[in-house]
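Sequence in, structure out.
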Amino acid sequence: MKKKIKALLLLGLVFLGGCGQASAPSVSSAGTDSQSIDLFAMDTAMTLTAYGDHAGEALEAAKSEIERLDALFSISSESGDIYALNRDHAVTLHEDTQALLKRALEVSDSTDGIFDCTIEPVMDAWGFTTQNYRVLSADELQQLLTHVDYKQVQQNGSDVSIPADVQVDLGGIAKGYTSDRIMQVFADNGVTSGIVSLGGNVQALGCKPDGSKWRVAVQDPNDEGENFAVVEIADEAVITSGGYQRYFEDNGRTYHHIIDPRTSTPADSGVISSTIISHDGTLADGLSTSLFIMGVDDALDYWRAHKEEFDAILMDKDGTVYVTEGIADRCSLLENREMQVVH
C-alpha cells in the first residue's frame, strides 16, 4: 500500500517524485569510484548506488538479496511465505519473514492498529491490488471491516497462523526492511558510502564520499513537478506517503490508496504528505503511512512519545508544513514556505 515513486540521483540531490516505470536491470558507471544498478522488484523501480573499490560486488549481492526477499514477501509468489500463509492459514516462516512480521505487529500495537498488515482484502475490494477500481457501498465497507484485525495474526517464533477469512500483506513495510538489509549487505561487502531508492523509499549508508550529508528532496503533493522540502541525512532512511501516489477518480471524487483500517475508506485526516526520517528503515516505512492516517495532532503526539526513534515532516491540506525538532536544523523548505518546528 505504499509508494510507486522513484528517486533520481543528480548532483548530490535525491528527488522523491513521479511514478516509477519498469526498467531492465543494468549497471552503469557513475564516476571513477562509484557504480549504480537499476532494477524492478516489489512492483517498484529501484536504483542502488555504491562507492568504493567493492561497489560492483556489493551491488550484485544487494540485487540478489532484493530478489530473494521479494520472493519471500510477495503475496503473489507461490514459493513465498506470505502466499503460503494466506493459502494454508498456518505455516513456518523463514527467518526474514519471521522478523518482518514481528516488526509489523509491533508497529500495529504501537499505533493502536492504524498500521494493519491484514488490510489486503480492503485494498483488493477497492481495486488497488488489481487496478479494477470501484467505489464500495456502506454495506461492503462494514463487511470488510470484519476481516481486518492484526490481532488475529498469531505468531510464535517462526510459526504463524491466521483465521481463514484473514489475509496478510507486508507490502506496507517490506521495502523499509529491504533497504535496511541492503545497508547491511553494503557494509558486509566493504562499502562505507552508498544510497538506494526503492520506489521512493530512500536510505543512505554513511555520508557522501566527500564527507557531506546526502540531500533528499520531498515532492510537493500538490504539484508532481515540484518539491517542497530538502532534508540532509547520513545513515538514515527518508520515506514518504501521500495520497497523490496511487488513486482513481469516480464521479468527480478522488479515492487514494492509503486506507484507514478503522473505516475501510481512504484516509481523510487532513495530512496530504507524511515523511519519516529514521535510522530504522523498517520503522520509517510503517510509520509514514500511519502518521498520514492519524492526522496532524495525533501524529505529532505519537512523535512526542517516540521522538528518540524518528523525526517527521508533515504537510496538511492548507499547505502548512510541520517539522519535528530533531531534524529542523537539517531541513529547508522551498518556495518561501514557513516551517512550524514541533517540540
